[in-house]
């Protein structure tokens, strides 16, 4: 009976996750001639090409640096908003809803909203000029494009991850805070001695899930920058799309998918290992 109840979810998992993964692995060992359209076995040729391609090295570096900066920022901001919205403040439910709303907006729509705001004559530059700062190029600058994409992703993500951290805060027994208050501990002391230590597991989960999501960023790049300027936002998911569907090199694109899956598996395994060690 339990297996029958799980069958729809298991079938969805097989057809939407397992079979595409097996297909990607198989196609990563194939090559298709652009002249004849004939597909043949290529062995590790696609992987050898990837790992000797300076362009792929640049893609990996840009993706890793972006994630190393973005993910901790999202976790910290989500935790800060969660801490603020569990306080006894007026209209706290409304504030939570407003913070969560961007998480319900599709990624492509978020990209279009921020595309308008970050135009040379857009809202953000208008605000900067109001406070006496010069307008910025944002998406058209190699130095600012990745930051701009990160700003969009953060705006859309912090409300979603905030909910998980609020759930973690609700699990902390009130008796701990009451005992600390009786001992004369102030808000900051309670934060660092009780709240943050007991939030390690929820925040670690958010970091792991956020890492996976950030490695799969595609819509903002595809809609706004096409990987530019000068490859500054050419993250690995967009590079896969570019190689497989724009350059029509499906074998190399699928090899890059396999590399991405292995890279994510290693990163998530390390994070889970650290999570288990914290539990001990």
UniProtKB/TrEMBL annotation:
One Pfam family per UniProt: BPD_transp_1
Membrane spanning stretches: 59-86, 98-117, 145-169, 205-225, 257-275
Location of this chain's protein in the cell: Cell membrane
Topology with respect to the bilayer: Multi-pass membrane protein
Annotated InterPro entries: ABC_transporter_permease (IPR051393), MetI-like (IPR000515), MetI-like_sf (IPR035906)
ABC transmembrane type-1 domain mapped to chain residues: 60-271
Keywords: Cell membrane, Membrane, Transmembrane, Transmembrane helix, Transport
Main subcellular localisation: membrane
Family: Belongs to the binding-protein-dependent transport system permease family.
Name of the featured protein: Sugar ABC transporter permease
Native source species: Microbacterium yannicii
């Amino acid at each position: 009976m339990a297996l029958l109840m799980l069958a729809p979810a298991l079938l969805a998992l097989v057809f939407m996750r397992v079979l595409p993964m097996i297909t990607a692995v198989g196609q990563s060992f194939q090559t298709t001639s652009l002249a004849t359209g004939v597909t043949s076995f290529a062995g590790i040729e696609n992987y050898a090409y990837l790992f000797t391609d300076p362009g792929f090295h640049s893609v990996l570096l840009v993706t890793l640096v972006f994630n190393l900066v973005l993910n901790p920022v999202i976790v910290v901001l989500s935790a800060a908003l969660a801490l603020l919205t569990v306080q006894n403040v007026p209209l706290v439910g409304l504030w939570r809803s407003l913070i969560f709303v961007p998480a319900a907006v599709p990624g492509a729509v978020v990209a279009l909203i921020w595309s308008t705001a970050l135009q040379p004559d857009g809202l953000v530059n208008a605000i900067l000029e109001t406070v006496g700062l010069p307008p910025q190029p944002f998406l058209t600058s190699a130095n600012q494009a990745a930051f701009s994409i990160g700003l969009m992703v953060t705006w859309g993500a912090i409300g979603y991850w905030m909910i998980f951290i609020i759930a973690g805060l609700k699990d902390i027994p009130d008796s701990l805070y009451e005992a600390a208050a009786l001992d004369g501990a102030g808000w900051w002391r309670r934060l660092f001695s009780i709240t943050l230590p007991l939030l390690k597991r929820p925040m670690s989960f958010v970091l792991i899930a956020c890492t996976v999501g950030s490695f799969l960023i595609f819509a903002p790049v595809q809609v706004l920058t096409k990987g530019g300027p000068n490859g500054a936002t050419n993250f690995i998911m967009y590079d896969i799309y570019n190689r497989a569907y724009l350059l029509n090199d499906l074998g190399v694109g699928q090899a890059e998918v396999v590399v991405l899956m292995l890279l994510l598996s290693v990163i998530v395994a390390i994070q889970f290992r650290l999570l288990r060690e914290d539990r001990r």
